[in-house]
Specification:
The protein is mostly helical. The chain contains 16 helices and 2 strands. Strands 1-2 form a two-stranded antiparallel sheet. The longest helix is centred in the N-terminal third of the chain and has 28 residues.
Amino acid sequence: MSTMAPIRRTLSNTFQEFFDSEKSSGILLIICTVISLLIANSSSGADYLSLWQTYVGGLSIEHWINDALMAIFFLLIGLELQRELYSGELSNFKNALLPIFAAIGGMVVPALIHFSLNAGTPTQAGIGIPMATDIAFALGVLALLGNRIPASLKVFVVAFAVIDDLGAIIIIATFYTAQLSVGYLVGALAVWTLLIALNRLLRVMSLVPYLLGGALMWFFMLKSGVHATIAGVMLAFAIPFSAKDDDEKSPSHKLEHFLHKPVAFIILPVFALANTGVLVGANWMQEVTSTNSVGLIAGLFLGKPLGVTLLCFVAVTSGLCRLPPELSWRHISGAGILGGIGFTMSIFITNLAFAGNAAIINASKMAILSASVTAGTVGFLWLRLLPKPEATKSTMETMDLEQSKQKP
């Protein structure tokens, strides 16, 4: 009896561009991280680390990177989340349920692992660190696997990683807010309301007023005590969006398209250079075996795949959702392992959770890097050993046609 090959999911041009830029960014992030680690632990280490603390315009260079440049990164994340909700994987509630459950499991279980080891201690604030997933690195690993993995796995990883980022954003806004200034917060919300009115009521399609309003909203948010990067996500949902996939006339699509390369090849690499200068001292073993570090490593490397797989299994067996035809439980587990690559978002939350405590920040970053490298390596090997997905008849016909065109 013949069986029909599973139908491969076709990726939109926007998603493919996103995937390509993120995988390239992942490679560049690795290079920048290695460079930062080498310089920080060289004879020039002290000068290198003090460089990022140089004050310009009232803020340190590190502060400008983490509050201003990363607000642009969060703007891109918001635009991608908006697209997923309106016309992507998350637009269909039935399809969205699986990555939603994956994201919830991938956030809750790592947080519980860290909390169980650090409850009631000064490092309890690090509970949000192992909850995040680094999209760039995760997609970088998937890119190395090429066509050995189903296209639907790439979509699944992006979907649950974006939801992870949304969870991280909520955590930042809720738990890592400094002293709150209600006046500035009201000002930020007023600007946001005005931008939404320009979109929904007046249908203003030019990006200029949204970007100017977004800059003002960022300033108010910075002064309010709520982390300024939240303004990036808020701005994304105020910008007009067309539900038609890859509609180049949509301001949201234009901005997302424009931001891909600067974020992938400038903002994230600069963030890596400024935030991964980890000092590996003589007591490094004591640092990575502290309850905080163990909680972070176990949360990312063990908690992520356990949470993702377990909650997806509960959701599928209870009939709430189903696995895509191309995916097996081994694919879901592999995606969960890759979810343990915390890196950018985990380091970002570390700086907020332990602000002012350089020793704990350094130890946490060391734990994050160790867990991320391990998760990336194990995830790659896990998925590499899975059977290569079969090509569909239509895929084979397309390949044959392309080959025939290349013949003289």
